[in-house]
Design goal:
By secondary structure, this protein is α/β, with parallel strands linked by helices. 21% of the residues lie in helices and 20% in strands. β4, α2 and β5 form a beta-alpha-beta unit. α4 crosses α5.
Amino acid sequence: MKLLVTALATSLAVPAAAQVPGPAPAPDYTQDASWLCRPDRADACASNQDVTVIRADGKRKIEKLRPDPQISFDCFYVYPTVSFDPTPNSDMNAGPEEQGVASAQAARFRQHCRVFAPLYRQVTLTALRTAMTGATVTMDRELPYADVKAAWADYLARDNKGRGVVLIGHSQGSGILKRLIAEQIENTPVQRRIVSAMLLGTNVAVPAGQDVGGDFKRMPLCRKDGQFGCIVSYVTFRADSPPPANSRFGKVPGAGQVAACTNPAALAGGKAVTDAILGAKSAGTGSAAMGPWSKDGAPVTTGFVKVPGLISAECVSQGGFDYLAVTVNADPADPRTDTIVGDVAIGPAILKDWGLHLIDMSVAMGDLVELADRQATEWRGISWTKKKR
């Protein structure tokens, strides 16, 4: 799983001279090769999702993903910055890094929805690292948006057929979807098809104390079960390691504006145990390796692990930041691990300003998947009622 320091995608300040104006022609999304994931084919979103569940008493079982017999809504996923391509913008070939992140972040949603994920010419890690040195980089920041915009138009024309759709993104992907919603979806007939938008690992601006009116003028934050057509967004930090003053996550520019935080495990607010589904070996490159999941050192043979009750989360506002504070409910008396990985690190040094960006989705993956399904159920009920009138 190649979840790199994806925060760079949304956070790195690049000099204006490094920008290349104007988007190039979009890829041909009528061709299956332009898609990382499409339904009913063997691709990254059809990957093995077996989970080893380790209970507090140390007992284990393996859970297999069993898709619903009837899938009635879609998910449109845009992946974060993962490309190792040597060029400033990536090619349209699905490398192991794109496949790995789709397996980790999108494949589990196929339990309830058809998953569509376009390949796109994202700004690469190569370009971002070069820009960090102060060198001029001819990256084109319009290409990623233009590509995803074209893929979305193709999806609507060929595949949607009036179905509800959940938008899912992380980091660079969330930033692209944020713009797509503002420019192409809000205040158009297509908005009625949006079940929800899960924009994780990016800052979504809202007026303090309100749920709509910042980056989005019509789509509010999700605040209760039964609500749909709304936004789920948060950035994660450990509860005992809040954002330092230099963090770019959890705050937005503009007087009276704050970064949105919606806890998928407790939409109405408060602290709740999350249904975390974590990588068995690590949080990816940029993170330390995960040690034994239980104190007997027993190996884990699946790609993912679930540790019921170990992780809790709560949206907090502290020190000028709004974020999802993650607590590891360590119990030295039980046989399970008392820690998880997910911090961004360079060697032994943890970059506290990045928080738990590498596992933004993982800390509440099960909650996100089930929330999407509940929202789609409510959307279908309202949509069907309107059709019959």
